[in-house]
Amino acid sequence: MRGVDLCDQLRECYLVGRPCKKWWRYFLWFYINLCIVDAYIIQRESRGGTPPTGFNGKQFTQRHFRVRLAQQLIGDYQGARGMERAARKRHADSPIEYGHRLERMSERSRRCRNCTNKGLRHESVFGCKICNVHLCRGGCFSEFHK
Q1: CA distance 64 to 114
Q2: Per the count of CB atoms within 10 A, which of 15, 35, 69, 141 is most buried?
Q3: Which whole-number Å values give the CA distances from 50 to 43, 63, 110, in the listed order?
Q4: Average pLDDT by stretches of 10, the chain with 146 residues
C-alpha cells in the first residue's frame, strides 16, 4: 500500500488539468499526471538522491522537476504575439510592399495599438488587416510599421 499511497500523494501535490464531468477527460488528465509523477520517481531513483546537472538548489523536488519539464516541452515557442512581432520586424523595411495598408477594419471602433503603447487613448475603426491591429488615421500607421 505504501507505493500506491505515495503515488497518490505525489499526484495530488501539483495537478495538471482541470476537474471535469466527462469521463474520458478525467482519465486523460489522470494519466498525464500519473506519467509526470512516474517520470519524477524514475529520475529520483536513478540518480540516487543527487540533483541533475545544472541544478544549484538544496533539494530537487517534484516542483522543480515539473518546472524543468514544462520548460523543455515549451522550448523556444513564442506564441501568437511573438510571431506577430517577428513578422512585423521581417517586413518593417517597406510595409506597403507586403500588402500592409490602412483599411476600415470594422464598424466598431477599438483602441489604437500605437497610441496605447504610448499611454494615450484614441479609438479608430481603421487599421492594418495583415497585422490585425487598429490604428489611427494620423501617423500611427507608418509609426507602427517602422
Answers
A1: 39
A2: 141
A3: 10, 16, 55
A4: 70 76 85 89 82 73 86 78 61 57 84 89 86 84 80
Which of 8, 19, 10, 20 lies closest to 40, judged by CA? 10
Dist. CA 137–CA 102, nearest whole Å: 8
User: What DSSP character marks residue 58?
Assistant: S
Size of the chain in residues: 146
Residue 90 φ then ψ, to 5°: -65, -45
Measured CA to CA, the distance from residue 14 to residue 10 in angstroms comes to: 8
The model's pTM is 0.49
Task: Please tell me the distance from the alpha carbon of residue 111 to that of residue 133, in angstroms, as a whole number.
Answer: 9
Dist. CA 133–CA 146, nearest whole Å? 14
Q: How far apart are CA 103 and CA 134, in angstroms?
A: 9
Distance from the Cα of residue 136 to its chain's centroid: 29
Strand partners, 134: 127
Angle CA(46)–CA(50)–CA(56) in degrees, nearest 5? Answer: 135
Q: Cell 499526471, residue? A: 33
